[in-house]
């Protein structure tokens, strides 16, 4: 079970690993669109809710958010002994028969309803949408009450689950395909790297401004609605490469001086991938990065989201040497094989104990 399946990113990589464990299990989504998915998903048994039938549903799936709680609740799931949802929205809002576990692997409680409400809908938009947000919050609380067992992607998310849903949960870190990425054995090149969706809360603007002002070379990989604004503030040393294939990104990881991670993330797969390539990470010291980067060993933290603080951290990193083997060893803590073994054990325990 997943909220929607129209593109392939970090959440969908989790789904891919669950499919390895349970290859015959159908995968439900509010809406799916095979055109946005890689060929590896061609054999997946994809099923949708009634929302799939609406005109434009595949293109505007996020706009259907208010209808998702009811759509997921209407799914007929009586044939299953366990239901697993991967969710940051309403795929956890499931009706199962008595005694059937509803296990939610939670990416986060919806941040557009809770922690990042003002960032998603500032000013007038926020005031206009406030009644809908209040209603969706009650639906989200009700959906959480249907979950038998929460599993969180990080301690950061576990804290939100406790605070918002008043539920305890275990942490199982998301899968990273460490063996797909490797150091080159060569000295790093003189450029910094960002790999990110280009949206405001990712704070890619800090990296762009820091490198533009100091003449450091920066390569930005990714696409998104913030691209135009970032281009306008960028100097001649900043390069925007757009979205790249996994192999091309892996090569950039291995060649860069360091990976920049200026936002606050629930987990953040890209910093782990950079460490898998043997490269250090310079990250803002809050959120998931504090669980994936070892300060002073596999990277550095800066503690104020400002251009000055990021610039100072880059200057400090240039006076240090980071051990490739230590970076890669740290990344192995998040290997996809470990994810599969840990989550399979939790699912088995949930089925055996029905709690």
Task: Summarize the topology.
Elements: H1 10-21, E1 27-29, E2 46-48, H2 68-73, E3 83-87, E4 102-106, H3 117-120, H4 123-145, E5 149-152, H5 155-165, E6 170-171, E7 192-195, H6 204-214, E8 218-221, H7 227-233, E9 238-242, H8 246-255, E10 258-261, H9 269-276, E11 281-284, H10 289-292, E12 299-302, H11 307-317, H12 324-331, H13 336-353
If you had to describe this structure to a student in words, what would you say it looks like?
The chain has 355 residues and is of the alpha/beta class. It folds into 2 domains: 184 residues, Glycogen Phosphorylase B (Rossmann fold); 156 residues, Rossmann fold (3-Layer(aba) Sandwich), CATH 3.40.50. It is 37% helix and 13% strand. It is built from 13 helices and 12 strands. It has a 6-stranded parallel sheet, sandwiched between helices. A 4-stranded parallel sheet has the order 3-4-5-6. Strands 1-2 form a two-stranded parallel ribbon. The radius of gyration is 21 Å and the shape is globular.
